[in-house]
């Protein structure tokens, strides 16, 4: 879920991963659909505030386990 908070940006929230070995999440953004993603953050909480949000941006989240393995990106990506 994305909540737009103009002019402060966008707040992205997602459901927690329930894996026992969860270490955290990576948040990615792309300038639009079918564009390459860039990592914005690696963190432990289930929300991220993007103060640089621009219309058209899409977001994706992955889960990271304690061994450093990364899940597939959220499908579909988050889009406002």
| SSE string | EEEEEE
Which stretches are low in confidence, meaning pLDDT under 50 for 5 or more residues running? none
> Any idea what the radius of gyration is?
12 Å
Question: What gap, in angstroms, lies between the N and C termini?
Answer: 8 Å
Q: Beta-strand percentage?
A: over 45%
Tally of helical segments? 0
List how many beta strands DSSP finds: 6
Q: What general outline do the C-alpha atoms trace?
A: globular
Instruction: Tell me which oligomeric state these chains represent.
Output: single chain
Strand order, sheet with most strands: 1-2-5
What does the largest sheet look like?
3 strands, antiparallel
What descriptors fit this protein?
80 residues; 3-stranded antiparallel beta sheet; single chain
Describe this structure in words.
The chain is mainly β. It contains no helices and 6 strands. It has strands at residues 2-5, 9-13, 22-30, 38-43, 47-50, 58-65. It is globular, with a radius of gyration of 12 Å. The model has no long low-confidence stretch (mean pLDDT 89).
């Amino acid at each position: 879920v994305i909540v737009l908070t103009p002019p402060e940006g966008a707040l992205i929230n997602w459901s927690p991963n329930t894996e026992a070995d969860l270490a955290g999440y990576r948040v990615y953004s792309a300038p639009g659909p079918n564009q390459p993603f860039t990592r914005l953050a690696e963190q432990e909480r289930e929300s991220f505030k993007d103060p640089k949000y621009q219309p058209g941006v899409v977001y994706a989240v992955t889960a990271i386990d304690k061994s450093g393995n990364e899940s597939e990106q959220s499908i579909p990506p988050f889009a406002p």
